[in-house]
Amino acid sequence: MGVGEVLYKLLDFIMADCKRELISVERQDRMYIRMQSQQYLQQRRKFAVAFLAFIFILAAVDTAEAGKKEKPEKKVKKSDCGEWQWSVCVPTSGDCGLGTREGTRSGAECKQTMKTQRCKIPCNWKKQFGAECKYQFQAWGECDLNTALKTRTGSLKRALHNADCQKTVTISKPCGKLTKPKPQAESKKKKKEGKKQEKMLD
Fold it and tell me: 103 - beta bridge partners?
């Protein structure tokens, strides 16, 4: 075998080895590209999921704000009902203590227009001016000899259950026993003195 043939075979072997290396490098490049593409796809999927979650959160916030804005409208509907008007407290027994009172209100859309509420009337309050009205009275005035009465005024101190009470009231009571001069006693004394004078003259 000549030197030329040996060189030719050696060159052919080197070329074959280079081809194998090139093929392996191409395969590695393809695998790397595939791995990069898979990672890119995974990143895109994660981004898509995050974007959808962000949109969902925004939608939930919008619905919550819309619900808050709608609540005042419901309050406006409730305001269609009129204010409660309460009757006088009626004791269960006697003229004071625990009792009940009736409440009514107007409104076509009101679900409840009547209700009963428990109440209490203090037993130490003067009932002649209303069982739900408390007054603070001044001292008694001087006795009026013409009427034989003395009076005093009272100012409203407290009203239970928004009762309609007078701002000022006046009460009177008898003055009691009056010391008046007795005309009969004076005439008897005069008669006795007259008789004494007559005896002296006799």
Answer: 86, 115
Q: Is the dihedral of CA 66, 67, 70, 71 positive or negative?
A: negative
**In Å, how far from its chain's centre is CA 125?**
30
Model confidence, pTM: 0.39
Give the per-residue pLDDT at 132.
Answer: 78
Q: 34-66, pLDDT tens digit by residue? A: 777 777 777 777 877 887 787 878 888 777 776
Q: How many other CB atoms are there within 10 angstroms of residue 130's CB atom?
A: 20
Read off the amino acid at residue 74: K
Which residues on adjacent β-strands are paired with residue 118? 100
> At 57, phi and psi to the nearest 5?
-65, -45
Give, in order, the Cα–Cα distances in Å from 141 to each of 144, 154, 157, 160, 174: 9, 12, 20, 29, 12
The pair of three-digit structure tokens given for residue 199, joined into one six-digit string = 């005896």
